[in-house]
Amino acid sequence: MNPADLEFARAARGFMPDDEGEALHRLAAECPVDGPFLEVGSYCGKSATYLGSAARDSGRVLYALDHHRGSEENQAGWEHHEPDLVDPEVAKMDTLPIFRRAIHDAGLEGTVVAVVGDSPKVARFWSTPLALLFIDGGHGEEPAHLDYESWTPNLVAGGTLLIHDVFPNPADGGRPPYEIYLRAIDDGFIEFDVVGSLRALRAP
Ligand code: SAH
Ligand code: MG
């Protein structure tokens, strides 16, 4: 990853650890099939700057999907709540302005296309085949499984599936990302890399 992109990515706001972010970039840069990338769950744009840098270098586009209202675990009273991300006039979270600024500052406005909406709704009429899919949206039971069911059918054979926050040990974190990882294995995806809680699988 070039040093300027790396600096912007590291400085972006979010919970993605540096080593997992750099792995995102590497895995995207090594994606062996043609087509655009899509991430489910963009938050403030940290993962999008890592993936977007690789997308730009290979002349691709990264669709960055988020309703920007936060997951359950980002709401007031939950573990990952950041109070300054609430729009006080509507009393809802709004990460879109921060996301947009991060993409601008990273020089990725020509590469990263924000898709603002509810993941299963957007997926319903989506038909563009994807070379890479990164799942890091809602981590509750229903949202995680819906993301898996909604988006993996769009991955081309040989494409790259990345799942974040996969914790085999329940003491380390929530179950649903691990459950959809197990579903992927069951569905014939082949795991080929692990960095922290990030799993990389090859689409059948
Ligand atoms: N990938 C980001 C972090 C994403 S946090 C990074 O590493 O930088 C999870 C995000 O998923 C939140 O921003 C939340 O708004 C989004 N999200 C949760 N459920 C969603 C849904 N049903 N549709 C769209 N986005 C959703
Ligand atoms: Mg995550």
Sequence stretches where pLDDT stays below 50 over 5 or more residues: none
Main sheet makeup = 7 strands, mixed
Bound small molecules, by name, code or SMILES, are:
S-adenosyl-L-homocysteine, magnesium ion
- Describe the strand arrangement of the main beta sheet, using strand numbers: 5-2-1-6-7-9-8
Give the strand content.
15-25%
Determine the fraction of residues in helical runs and give it as a percent range.
25-40%
DSSP strand tally:
9
| Mean pLDDT across residues | 96
Structural write-up:
A hairpin with a 2-residue loop joins strand 8 and strand 9 (about 200). The longest helix has 12 residues, at about 20-30. This protein is an alpha/beta fold. The mean pLDDT is about 95. The chain is globular and about 45 Å long. It has a seven-stranded mixed sheet with strand order 5-2-1-6-7-9-8, sandwiched between helices. The chain has a two-stranded antiparallel sheet with strand order 3-4. The protein has helices at about 5-10, 20-30, 45-55, 95-105, 120-125, 140-150, 175-185; strands at about 35-40, 60-65, 85, 90-95, 110-115, 130-135, 155-165, 190-195, 200. The chain is built from seven helices and nine strands, in the order ααβαβββαβαβαβαββ. Bound molecules: S-adenosyl-L-homocysteine and magnesium ion (MG). S-adenosyl-L-homocysteine (SAH) binds next to helix 3 and strand 2. S-adenosyl-L-homocysteine (SAH) binds near residues 46, 47, 66, 74 and 119.
